[in-house]
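Running this now, will post back.
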Amino acid sequence: MDSMERFAIISICFLMFAVSTCKPPDDTSQSETVSPGVFQDKIVLGSSMALSGHAGYLGTQTHRGAMAYINHINEQGGVWGRKIEIKAYDDAYDPPQCLVNTQKLLIEDNVFALFNYVGTPTTLKTIPLITEAKIPLVGMFTGANALRTPFNRYLINVRASYYQETNAAVRHLVKDLGLTKIAVFYQYDAYGFDGLTGTELALKQFGMEPVSRSFYIRGTMDIEEGLAKIIKSGAEAVVMIGAYGPCTKFIKLSEEKGFKPVFYNVSFVGANELARRIGKESGSPVILSQVVPPPEGPGSAKLLGNAIEYVHLLRKSYPEDEPNFVGLEGYINARVLVEGLLRTRAEVTREAFINAIESIHDMVLGPKTTISFSPNDHQGMESVFFTRLIEGRFVLFEDWRALKNEIELIETDNPNPLGPKSDSMNHEIIKRRQP
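Update: finished.
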C-alpha cells in the first residue's frame, strides 16, 4: 500500500467519524435503519468510470446498459418503494482520479454501495478504501484476478475472469488451430499484467511460453516498437490485452506490413468500438472472447433470453445507441444489483445486502446463462463466449476447424515475413509439449 492510499484511508476514517457525530438529530429523511445512502424514497449508489478519454466508450456503455434497466425498475416504483439513484463520476480511466471519486462518494455523498466500476488499474486502486469502509462494490467491468483472490467480502464480481478468458482462448489456439508460436501484446499496467499472466499460465499447460512479450503505455498509441518485436518473433497468433485504440492501430499496421497472424482480444477491449475502428476491410482473423453473448443476432436469444429485454430497454432510454456487449454486461450488473436489493426486503443495510447477494443461486438469464453466488464465491458467471469479426461486426463463433483451414490458405498466399518455421523449432516445441 503506497502513501497516497494510506493517507486516503486515514482521511476516510476521520471524516466518516466526523460525519456520523455531526449528523443533525432531526434528520428524518433517512430510513430508520440509518444505513448510508438509504432514504424513505430512494437508495443512492455511486460509480466511478471512464466517461471520457481513450476508454470513454466502455464507461459510457456500461453505465447506459445499467441505467436502461434501473430506469425501468424506477418507472415501476423502484425497490420496496425506493427508487435507485446512481451518482456517476468520470475518472477518464485514470487510477488517481478514480481514488478521488471514490473518496467523494464515500465521504461527501455517503452512498449505500458502489456500482459498475470500469477498468483494472482504476478499480484496484480503491480496494483499501472499500475494505476499510466495509462498503459493497457490485459489478466491475474488469476480469482482474486481484479482485477475486484473495477473497474479499465486499467485492461482488459478476463476469468471468481474464484468466478464464485467456485459458479458453489459448486452448483453442493450440488444440484446435495447432498454433505453436503465440505472442502477447499488452497494456503496461495491472490490466495488461493480469492478461499476460493468464496467458502464460494457459500456455504452461502445454509446455509452452510466449514467443514474444511486448507492451505499450496506457493512454498512448505507441505500439510500433512492440509490433516490430512481435513480427520478428514470427508469431502465428497475438494475444492482445489492451484498449480499443492501440489494438486497432496494432492490427491495421500489422496488415500494412503483411503480417497476418490470428489476433485475439479479451473482452475489455470493447467489441463494437474495435469493430467500428477496424472496419470491414480486415483480411486477418480477429477473435474476441466475451463474458456475455451478443445482444442480437443468430443464437443470442438461445444463450441469453434477457438480451431481448436489454435491447428493448436500451432503445427506450438511449434510442441513439446500438445494443452492444459492453452495455449488455452493464445491464446484467444492474439485474444483480436489483435482485440483491429485492432480497433484503425491509432490511436495507450493507451487510444484509451482501448476504442477499450470496443467496442468489442459479438466477436464470437465459437457457444457457445463469448467475450464482455463495458466501465463499463472489463471481456470479463463469461463461466465456467467442466471437469473430465478420464484415465489420463481431458475431458468435464456434467453427475452429474452418478457421484452421482458412489460416492455412492465408499462410499459402501470405507467407510469414520471416519465412517458414524450421523443422528444428517444430521438433523442440513438440518435445516441450510431451508430458
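The chain has 15 helices and 14 strands. More later if anyone needs it.
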